[in-house]
Amino acid sequence: MAVVIRMKRTGRKNAPCYRISVADSRNPRDGRTLETLGIYDPISPVEDLRLRLDVERARFWLDRGAKPSHTVNNLFVRENVYEGKVEKPKRERPGRAKDTKKRANRAQRKASFAAAKSARRDERAAARKAAKAAAGAAE
């Protein structure tokens, strides 16, 4: 069973409120949950009431392999749920900096398009200047 930590929408129209809950990934967003970890009220005027979260239970579920949604992950970072956790080191990708034929062709094509665009712009400016001079001479 794949367990996720996500937000369950509550509240009325144009006044959202969310329950941060643990659920089976196959259940719908507002469906059955295993546990409710807290409440997130993004429009609350009181800063302390915007997010109420049981940090210990959140850590418990993360240790058991539950995957938080993107938004819940951001809330967890803000509340220091990951305190003491070691982040994965960023992997090295040495092939990303290599000059390849495709990259060279793409750069050449981009440069030619930029040169053509510049030539068209200069042509339009010269035509405008000539039209202005002709209008000034006609008066």
TrEMBL record:
Per the UniProt entry, what is one GO biological process?
translation
Q: Does Ribosomal protein appear among the keywords?
A: yes
Enumerate composition-biased segments (Basic and acidic residues).
86-98
Quote a single Gene Ontology cellular component term. cytoplasm
Q: Quote the biased-composition stretches of kind Basic residues, using this chain's numbering.
A: 99-109
Keyword annotations: Ribonucleoprotein, Ribosomal protein
SUPFAM superfamilies hit by this protein: Ribosomal protein S16 (SSF54565)
Q: Where is this region: Disordered?
A: 86-139
**MF-aspect GO terms:** structural constituent of ribosome
**Similarity comment text for this entry:** Belongs to the bacterial ribosomal protein bS16 family.
Q: Which HAMAP family match?
A: Ribosomal_bS16 (MF_00385)
Please report the name of this protein according to its UniProt entry: Small ribosomal subunit protein bS16
The organism's taxonomic lineage, starting at the top = Bacteria, Pseudomonadati, Planctomycetota, Planctomycetia, Planctomycetia incertae sedis
